[in-house]
């Protein structure tokens, strides 16, 4: 049997396998690096997009807060202005209120009781109870004869 030396062939085969192994490691590392870079790029774009959306939401929320604050102020301001206007009207014409109550006291006949008196700028509304309709008629005549009351109207239930 002849003796064949397989050592050079095995050495070449081993070098070829090592080279292929190193090339596959380098290729896998490169692919991993590319995938990582692509993932970082993708996620950085997603994060930037979300930051832009968050900033838009913040600006819109600030606009709404400002609008709500303005409407809250105007809602609070209207009743305050109305109260101030009413107090100015009463302060400007205190004698009128005194004369009105004086005339009411003089014009209300016996047997008629006023339960509420409401006055807006030009008109006064009186509600009450009475013993008979003749008392209401007498009250209307008394108001009609008064200097401070004009154009009385009766409204029944």
Structure description:
The protein is mainly alpha-helical. The chain folds into two domains: 1-92; 94-145, no CATH class. Helices cover 72% and strands 10% of the residues. The chain has three helices and two strands, in the order H-H-E-E-H. Strands 1-2 form a two-stranded antiparallel ribbon. Helix 2 crosses helix 3 (133-145). The radius of gyration is 49 Å and the shape is rod-shaped. It starts with 6 loop residues before the first helix and ends in a 12-residue tail after the last helix. The model has no long low-confidence stretch (mean pLDDT 81).
Summarize the entry for a quick read:
This protein has helices at 7-92, 94-107, 133-145, and strands at residues 112-119, 124-130. It is mainly alpha-helical and 157 residues long. The model has no long low-confidence stretch (mean pLDDT 81).
């Amino acid at each position: 049997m002849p003796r064949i030396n397989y050592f050079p062939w095995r050495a070449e085969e081993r070098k070829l396998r090592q080279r292929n192994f190193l090339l596959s490691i380098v290729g896998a590392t490169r692919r991993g690096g590319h995938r990582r870079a692509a993932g970082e790029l993708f996620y950085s774009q997603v994060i930037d997009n979300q930051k832009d959306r968050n900033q838009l939401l913040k600006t819109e929320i600030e606009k709404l807060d400002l609008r709500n604050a303005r409407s809250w102020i105007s809602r609070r301001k209207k009743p305050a202005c109305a109260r101030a206007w009413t107090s100015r009207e009463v302060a400007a014409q205190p004698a009128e209120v005194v004369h009105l109550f004086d005339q009411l006291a003089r014009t209300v006949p016996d047997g008629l009781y006023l339960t509420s008196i409401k006055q807006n700028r030009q008109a006064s509304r009186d509600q009450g109870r009475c013993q008979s309709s003749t008392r209401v008629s007498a009250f209307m005549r008394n108001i009609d004869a008064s200097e401070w009351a004009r154009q009385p109207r009766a409204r029944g239930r």
